Structure to design on (345 residues):
């Protein structure tokens, strides 16, 4: 019996070593270890051996069984092995449909930014990009915030631990796209029709706020620019982006950098203006707008006797939520990386 077992091992090993084919390896496994395999048969006969030799032969049979099992598994894992596709390639059926690869797509926010940019480019705005890490001068002081004025607190700014710049002050993560206003004016090219779309950062997180979000800022500076131009642009944008049905309203407000200043509200698309968990009273606050404050124009090097301007700054996430077909009840899902949500768009 011992010799028979050793012969079985030798035969199985040489068969395993001499093939690189997965199907053949499975057949060897069946021939030796399967229900009617030769090693299985030998193991069944151990029970008929004299009592005293059974333990030793049983142990040997088990070791051989494990060795054959290990050799086959090892071989199947080896890189040289011919698995299904290689075999199939021999008898390829060119009439079979191809295998479609999974396709990704742009994130919802990127799609939103592209759509918003197209709408504004259509009426002559130029998209610009300014730094994500800014100086206090551009984010606040040049925008008519007196030095160390607490109005900065409304922006819940992240300050960067860096030596302050002698003229520009502390380093901050851009809290709003309005910091691009002065940078645009500094270029000295008039008239201005800028669209600044950028990441903004604030210490906020709830159903309608995320710590990193996107704003798009419009700035128009030229001769005889008035509030009616601002209202015309608002009207055009809402009709293009949200459709004819949605209403908007302008409320007086206060911003340091515009005078007069407004807040723009849009009727809620989730409840159609009736009031719901998201909007509470039927209106969603979209963001600010106003006529550029003369001090800001001066800080940007613009002649206030000749030129006036308007500006608006709105949240990309917020306007996405307002789209009728996108009734998001919690803004944070946009950044949750949940594919069940993201794959829907
Ligand atoms: C501003 O940031 C002004 N710079 C807007 C402005 C520009 C006014 C030009 C006048 C002229 P406010 O802090 O309200 O304003 O933010 C504007 C919009 O950004 C908000 O209405 C909202 O849509 C969006 N927003 C602000 N903070 C967050 C946040 N944490 N998460 C998501 N969206 C936000």
């Amino acid at each position: 019996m011992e010799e028979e077992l050793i012969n079985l091992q030798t035969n199985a090993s040489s068969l395993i070593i001499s093939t690189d084919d997965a199907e053949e390896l499975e057949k060897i496994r069946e021939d030796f270890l399967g229900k009617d395999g030769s090693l299985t048969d030998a193991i069944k006969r151990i029970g008929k051996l004299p009592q005293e030799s059974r333990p030793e032969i049983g142990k040997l049979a088990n070791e051989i069984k494990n060795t054959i099992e290990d050799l086959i598994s090892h071989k199947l894992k080896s890189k040289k092995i011919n698995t299904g596709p290689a075999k199939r390639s021999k008898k390829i059926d060119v009439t079979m449909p191809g295998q479609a690869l999974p396709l990704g797509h742009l994130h919802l926010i990127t799609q939103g930014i592209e759509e918003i940019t197209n709408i504004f480019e259509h009426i002559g705005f130029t998209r610009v990009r300014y730094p994500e890490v800014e100086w206090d001068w551009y984010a606040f002081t040049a925008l008519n915030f007196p030095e160390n004025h607490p109005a900065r607190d409304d922006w819940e700014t992240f300050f960067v631990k860096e030596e302050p710049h002698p003229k520009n002050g502390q380093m901050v993560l851009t809290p709003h796209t309005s910091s691009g206003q002065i940078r645009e004016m500094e270029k000295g090219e008039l008239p201005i029709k800028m669209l600044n779309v950028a990441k903004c950062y604030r210490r906020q997180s709830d159903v309608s706020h995320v710590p990193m979000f996107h704003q798009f800022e419009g700035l128009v500076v030229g001769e005889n620019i008035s509030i009616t131009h601002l209202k015309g642009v608002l009207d055009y944008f809402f009709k293009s982006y949200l459709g004819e049905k949605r209403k908007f309203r302008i409320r007086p407000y206060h911003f340091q950098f515009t005078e007069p200043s407004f807040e723009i509200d849009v009727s809620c698309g989730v409840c159609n203006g009736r009031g719901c968990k998201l909007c509470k009273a039927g209106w969603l606050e979209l963001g600010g707008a106003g006529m550029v404050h003369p001090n800001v124009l001066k800080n940007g090097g613009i002649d206030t006797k000749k030129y006036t301007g308007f500006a608006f700054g709105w949240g990309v996430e917020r306007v996405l939520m307002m789209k009728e077909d996108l009734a998001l009840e919690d803004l944070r899902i946009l950044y949750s990386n949940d594919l069940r949500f993201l794959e829907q768009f």
